[in-house]
Each structure stands twice: as C-alpha cells, then as structure tokens.
Amino acid sequence: MDNTNIILKIEGLCKAFGSNVVLNNFNLELIKGENIVVLGKSGSGKSVLIKCIVGLLKPDKGNIHVFDTNMLELDQESLDKIRIKIGFLFQNSALYDSMTVRENLEFPMRRHWISLTSSEVKNLVEESLDNVGLLHAINMMPSELSGGMRKRIGIARTLIMKPKLILYDEPTTGLDPITSREIVQLMLDLQKKYHTSSVIISHDMSVAKLTANKIIVLLDGRNYAEGTYDELKKSSDKNINQFFEFAS
Amino acid sequence: MKLPKGISDLLHETGQLSSFVVRFFKEGFKPRYEWEELFKQAFINGYKSLPLVGITAFIMGLVLTVQSRPTLAEFGATSWLPAMIAISIVREIGPVITALICAGKIGSSIGAELGSMKVTEQIDAMEVSGTNPFKFLVVTRVLSIAFMLPILVILADLIAIYACYIGVNFKDVVSWKLFYNKVFNSLEYSDFIPALVKSFFFGLTIGLVGCFKGYNSQKEQKELDMLQILL
User: Fold this and answer.
1) Are B203 and B110 in contact (CB under 8 A)?
2) Chain B contacts of A51, Cβ < 8 Å?
C-alpha cells in the first residue's frame, strides 16, 4: 500500500483508567477517501479512541500517525496545527452556548486564518451553512436550535476549516430515525464534495450500513472483528450478531 | 498510615489548585494574548456588575452614616462623621464588601459557565479546533476580574461617600463643598493604595477559584443547569 494514501494509522494503542483497561492493543488504518465505522457497546472505549486520535487523551502505549505524523511526539504548537486538518463532530455537537451560530463558525477561522477579510469569512460561513441547509439560522443562538439542527451546525463548523480527516462521535445519538437518516445523507454528500476520510464512532447499525467502507468491532479494547457490513452480517459469532439482531 | 478521607481530599484539592495557579501564571505571560476576549470579559464582569455593586455601596454608605450619627452626637462629634465614614469605607469596607459581592455574582457565574462548558464538551471542542482553552477561557476571566475589581471598588467608594453626604443631610445641613473638604482632607494616598492593591488580589483570588471549580468540574449537566437557574 502506498503510504501517502494512509490518512490515519493506529498501532498497538493501549489506554487504561486505573485498573480499567479501555483500549488494549487496538489497531486501525484509514485510507484516503475511506469511511471506517468503529462499532461497540456503550462504555467499550469508542469515544476514548477518537479522543486519543485528536490528542485530548494521552494513550499509555502505541502509536497514532495522522497524515504521516506521529501525534504523540508533537509539541503543543505542532499539535494545534495538525488539529486544524482534523474535523471532530462531538456527540452533543458542543456548540459554544454563548455565541451565535455565525460566531460558532467564525471562531476557528478567525483564530487560524487571520489573513482572511471579513467578507471572505462571511462568504465561507454562509457557504458552510448553505451546505447543511441552515443558512436561515445564522443569527440564532444554540439554545434555540433543535437536536438535528445542532448536529447540522456542528457538521458545518467541523467542515469550515476544510479538514481532510473527520472524526464523528456518535453522529446520530439522540435523534429520531428520519433526522438520523438526513444527517447520514448529509455526511455522505459532504464527503463526496470535500473528499474527506472519516472515522465514525457509533452503535447505530443504520449508520454503519450507509457509511462504512469497513467496520471494526471494538470489544474488550481490541479489534474483535473487521470487515464490510455484509461480511460481518454473515458472521456466526454471537458478539457480532447481537449488533445486527438489535438493529433489525 | 492512611489519612482520613476528608484530609486527603483537602490535600488533593489544594495540590490541584496550586498547579492550576502555577499554570495560570505560566500561560498568562506567553503569547498569544487574547485581548478581544479580555475586553469582553472586562465588560461582562465589570460593567455588568456595577448596578449591584452601586446599590450595595449606596446602602452601605447611607446606613453606616445613619447608624453612626447617634453615637457621635452623644459626644458632640457629628462633624467627624464624613471623615470617619470615608476612611472606614475607603480603607476596608469598600474593598471587602465589593469583593464579597463579586465573589457571589462573578465567581459563581464563572464556575457555572465553565462547568457547563466542560460537561457539554465545549472546552474539548475549543481544544480540538487548535485553541488553547485555558488561555482563552481562564486567563482572560481571571485577569478581567483582577483588573476590574479595583475599578469597581473606586466607584463603590465614591457612591458610598455620596450616600454618606445624603445621610449627613438627613439631620444636619452640610454643603457639598464642606462635606467634600472634610472627606478629602482626612484621606491620604496611604488609605487608597493598599486598598486598591488588596482589591487586585481579591479579584485574582475570586477569578482563580471560580475558574478552578468550573474548569475541573465533574458535575452532572442537570446540577449545573440548576446552579445557573439559582444564580
């Protein structure tokens, strides 16, 4: 495999909180343009995994290479530079409550692309909101938005810095099935438009079915199984089957 | 030997607070400086606290004057009233009362705000967007309170002294010019300066404790919502 095509490579990742081992020799390789869904039950360490990727948590052992850079060897300044190229959609969108939607989207740009003029910033914000169909919400406060709208604004904020890698933490949690479907479709449309690669953390099989090029089942902190949706569906392993049974 | 839980918790929190304070001084002097956020917080913490501080200072000056007058009148010393009230307000009561109000209003609202941001992952979101949340949220808030509190104290002192003038005129007739001369002839720089320096450190302490509690919050979101409603 050509190394330049590898966006994210995780080798032997271990993370424990006291005696509670969350990740135990976890491995992952994400190719350009690919979507990997990490499936796992609640508390299986999925969120810990993506927090390790982006440097919010420090793993005990292992390596994380993003765009061929070892994330664990970076100083704060270099880490911040890499983070700009990584989009992160939080489970609850994590919109800044004290800012309007416009200010939420402007926030990362004003800090990192300081050479942009006000009209360029305005255009980018409007383009981003238009992408998620919420241009009319530009002056609203996060408290005025519904769950689905917050997710969409979260996606818009994630995409505004034009990241090459996007990490989605449970993108459809707390949403009704119709809104979930809309969010998944939006993720796919925007991936096509901006040519991004994604790691999607979820326990929602419909998300996995629609988005995944590859699924990794995370169990006991390690890669329990890997494959496409159809391959895993055919599996006779009861730990894998339970995801499909509850989904159906 | 194992320490009792209460003592070990206290020592643990003291250690955490100490490292938080050290981090504040380390990060506070390093660029990039968040001027825009600093001024925004100065407006929120200073200007928006003025009505509460002003009303309290007015009542404080008035009540102190009205309550002190009968005792001084027994000795025929009511003419000392302006000087006595001014000195006690400027030296001690003004800074302490203003700091207490700000601790209640600003300290707790900062704690609740940062706690809410922590629980809803807004602080993490700031960090992954390549912004240092400690510098952006903590340093700006602490410095804004530290610099605004002395200004609030000066304003509170002036309002309290004016209230004293009104209180004095309840029973006596004293011109503003005479009152002004009595007050400012009795005050010296050595009354003002230590009070303002003290206010700066009161502000620093209020900001640091409020931010520490919020930034290291582990509370449930609904508890924080309740706290914000109560505030």
Assistant:
1) no
2) 124
CB A181 within 8 A of CB A17: no
Enumerate the residues of chain B whose CB falls inside 8 A of the CB of residue A111: 129-131
Q: What is the ipTM of this complex?
A: 0.87
Distance of CA B138 to the CA centre of its chain: 16
Domain for residue B5, yes or no? no
pLDDT digits (tens, 9 = 90+) for A56-115: 999 999 999 998 889 888 888 888 888 888 999 998 889 999 999 999 999 988 888 778
Query: Residue B16: inside a domain, yes or no?
Result: no
Residue B195 placed within a domain = yes
HEC string of B191-207 equals: HHHHHHHHHHHHHHHHH
**A186 falls in which pLDDT band (50, 70, 90)?**
confident
Domain count, chain B: 1
Of all residues in chain B, the one with the smallest CA distance to A77 is: B130
Enclosing domain of residue B114? 23-230
Q: Which domains does chain A have, with CATH numbers?
A: 3-96+164-187+195-247 (3.40.50.300)
| Chain B residue whose CA is closest to A88 | B128
**Beta carbons of B167 and B65 less than 8 angstroms apart:** yes
Return the amino acid letter for B119.
V
Contacts of B127 in chain A (CB under 8 A): 56, 83
DSSP string, B170-198: HHS---HHHHHHHHHHH--HHHHHHHHHH
Phi, psi of A59 (to 5 degrees): -70, 160
Is residue B28 included in any domain, yes or no? Answer: yes
pLDDT at A3: 62
Q: A117-143 pLDDT, tens per residue?
A: 888 899 999 998 988 888 999 999 999
